[in-house]
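Let us practice reading a record.
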Amino acid sequence: MTKRCDWANSSPEMQAYHDNEWGHPEHATPVLFELLCLETYQAGLSWQTVINKRAAFRRAFYNYDIERVAAMTADDLERLLTNKAIIRNRLKLTATINNARVLANWSASVPFDDWLWAFVDGQPVRHAVTTMAEIPATTDLARTIAKAMKKRGFKFVGPTTVYSFLQAAGLVNDHLISCDWAPENQVRGVS
């Protein structure tokens, strides 16, 4: 029998996200951008709601093509606000466009993914937790990265959102020890 983190058992979509994405180290900037966007949409809502609307968000934001999203205008934003298939929160949608512009105009000496992964020395941080209650809402690492992202111009990147993003992108691995996707179980070849 497959063992997953408790939160992943609520629907087939949640299981697929858990099994194929959450906690897997991600380096592709377009995928990192999508994961960051999804975490901003989730603020104040359930993750199931976000997962249910993911395909619609992909259509609305050109599959998270950074250049195309960065080029979106005020008219595009108004159009998005009438799209019933997505979460129509002006601040969150504006943040998506803003954050695409930050990435499109990235002028650091290192690519975004290298910049981000440098905060964890290129290796996922492992929290060997046995229950979901042990997983923090945020950490000092997330606070540091949130501050650095804000300094770069990112919006809607508070420490809690950033911590969830770090989990999603695999910079932090919070799979429960009992989960087949925990690194300890991967080494043993459980899944």
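A brief commentary: Strands lie at 125-126, 172-173.
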